[in-house]
């Protein structure tokens, strides 16, 4: 490749990046601004000019993570901006004019489970809103002789559990579509 064709390729690449970068940045900001952090998620916390205070942290089942100089920080149910503000508030007495960022690296806490008579039982990662039919599809579908009229969604709320009935045959026929609820993290779809 000669010098002129490399320059042309570089110019086209820079033009493409200038067109795409604002959209990607806006998408990431909108997604992270609205995303409620969940237990099991991995965050990157970065304190500017403090190499020892840049690390990945795992949000524990209690919804918190530990961070040097700050102790335990509540993350579950909060946005990255709320967590960032908490980090700054807790370490500002040790580091004046602290600048920190918090980013979601992995959303492993956003899982539901499909068990019973499906081809691939186990956890499913919900990268977006996922309803029951989508979850069953992600589990490879049901096996022969599955009790399609008696599927249940087990949902924990506080210390109690509720069972939401789901009739696959009705939803497949376009009836009673309100059964096809959006799953919440921790829901268990049971296919008898």
Structural write-up:
The longest helix has about 30 residues, at about 5-35. The chain has helices spanning about 5-35, 80-90, 130-140, 170; strands spanning about 40-45, 55-60, 65, 70-75, 100-105, 110-115, 120-125, 150-155, 160-165, 190. The strands form 3 sheets. It has a 5-stranded mixed β-sheet, covered by helices on one side. A 3-stranded antiparallel β-sheet has the order 2-1-5, covered by helices on one side. The protein is built from 4 helices and 10 strands, in the order αββββαβββαββαβ. Residues about 15-30 have low confidence and may be disordered. The radius of gyration is 23 Å and the shape is elongated. It folds into 2 domains: about 40-105, 2-Layer Sandwich (wza like fold); about 110-190, Outer membrane lipoprotein wza fold like, CATH 3.10.560. The protein has about 190 residues and is an alpha+beta fold. About 30% of the residues lie in helices and about 30% in strands.
Which keywords apply here?
single chain; alpha+beta; 2 domains; three-stranded antiparallel β-sheet; 4 helices; Outer membrane lipoprotein wza fold like
